[in-house]
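Deliverable D2.4 — example input (structure tokens):
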């Protein structure tokens, strides 16, 4: 039996929050326990903040290498100002740096075909500036994936995906790259709009 933490539990929320928040909670619990509890219970009270300290370490470990909110905003602004040819060149550079052989896609909804270690990944990125992405581009990408017998598919869009796209994405195991994923992928790549 695999145990799974509830998505909205306090610890799950803290794992998704900046690591220092959990550390502050642990410190506050320790200080309040030291100040408010009788001497016999101070140590036990201070130790009750230990789970928050552990969560802060886990969150810091998960968040290492992740772009900051400022980096995500800067990437979003820069990439949104690019024309398709410049953005396509940047993506090719990113994929080649990550060890892929990159070809331009010919199928509808496919902008790049990536090959690495015998695995094929299809990428749809031309609608990266769209404010909202619905099911149609994802269906196109999935149909091309099935036709090419590709193992993976990535849809790159800086805008919001509609609510009805999430079940489709989960069902077909598509990968979505939005602003945060783009900021991480573009780290170290010169961006000239």
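Example output (designed residues):
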């Amino acid at each position: 039996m695999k145990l799974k933490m509830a998505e909205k539990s306090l610890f799950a929320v803290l794992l998704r929050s900046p690591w220092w928040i959990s550390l502050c909670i642990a410190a506050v619990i320790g200080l309040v326990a030291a100040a408010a509890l009788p001497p016999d219970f101070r140590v036990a009270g201070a130790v009750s903040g230990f789970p928050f300290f552990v969560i802060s370490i886990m969150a810091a470990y998960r968040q290492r290498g992740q772009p900051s909110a400022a980096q995500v905003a800067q990437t979003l602004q820069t990439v949104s100002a690019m024309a398709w040819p410049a953005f396509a060149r940047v993506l090719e550079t990113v994929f080649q740096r990550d060890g892929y052989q990159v070809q331009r896609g010919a199928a509808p909804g496919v902008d790049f075909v990536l090959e690495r270690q015998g695995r094929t990944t299809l990428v749809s990125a031309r609608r990266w500036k769209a404010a909202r992405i619905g099911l149609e581009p994802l269906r196109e990408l999935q149909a091309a994936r099935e036709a090419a017998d590709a193992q993976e598919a990535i849809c790159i869009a800086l805008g919001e995906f509609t609510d009805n796209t999430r079940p489709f994405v989960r069902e077909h195991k598509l990968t979505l790259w939005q602003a945060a994923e783009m900021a991480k992928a573009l780290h170290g790549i010169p961006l000239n709009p």
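Residues 96 and 128 are 20 Å apart (CA to CA).
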